[in-house]
Amino acid sequence: MRSARKKRSRPRQEGRLVSWNDSRGYGFVQTGDGDRLFVHISALTDRAHRPTRGDRLAFAVSRDDKGRPCATRVSVVSAARRRRLSIPRPPGRYLLAGGFGVLLLLAWALGRLPAGVAVGYIVMGVLTFSLYALDKAAAQSGARRIPESSLHLLALTGGWPGALVAQQRLRHKTRKQPFGAIFWATVIVNIVALSVFVFRGNDLLKWLG
Fold it and tell me: What is the rounded CA–CA span in Å between residue 182 and residue 186?
């Protein structure tokens, strides 16, 4: 009991979050003395608001199972003000996904694309968005993650517009490499394949026939 009361009464201090891996849920906070302490997502008192690099945090210093110092009972004390003053990120992924949707509708209206293909993109997009959301939740809770190869396969087969919306909306899989490079490669391959189908579909069917 005495040790428990002593742990709860530890004074809190403030520091700046100098690094943060949002997909893995951990980072490092620098104290006023220049020390760097490990901070895990589970130590946050309010997990609804994800921290970002540069946030000022309030925390207590504790030790993990191996006796290493770490931050606990962590709360963000300066993010609200900073986010109100910050300029929103350009929704480039929204624009790309929306523009592609408009092109699909135009190709269907001109008779260059079967309705089934357009519907297939919608279904794959919704499915891909859902799996991105599940993977984000798994990353936050420490549960089993969805393999990146599965996310790439969904993008390659037409789910990449949903992946773009998920990346922008959920702030998930936007910086990790080489995931990003492979993802954009799947987008290019899918668009090239669709373009060939739209403009040379009849020739291909004749050739195959």
Answer: 6
H-state helical runs in the chain: 2-8, 79-85, 92-109, 115-141, 148-154, 160-170, 179-208
Question: Which residue reads 């403030």 in tokens?
Answer: 14
Give the tens place of pLDDT for each residue, 23-33. 888 999 998 77
DSSP letter at 155 equals: I
* Interstrand relation of 36-40 and 12-21 (parallel, antiparallel or unpaired): unpaired
Q: With H, G, I as helix, E, B as strand and everything else as coil, classify residue 153.
A: helix
- List Cβ neighbours of 101 (8 Å cut-off, separation of 6 or more): 161
Q: What is the DSSP string of 39-51?
A: EEGGGBS-TTS--
Q: Which domains does the chain have, with CATH numbers?
A: 2-84 (2.40.50.140), 92-208 (no CATH)
Type of residue found at 35: D
Cβ(45)–Cβ(74) below 8 Å: yes
- Tell me the C-alpha to C-alpha distance, in Å, between residue 22 and each of 19, 115, 116: 10, 39, 37
* pLDDT (tens digit per residue) in 153-162: 999 999 999 9
Q: What is the pTM of this model?
A: 0.57
Angular region, 51: left φ>0, alpha ψ -120 to 50, beta rest: beta
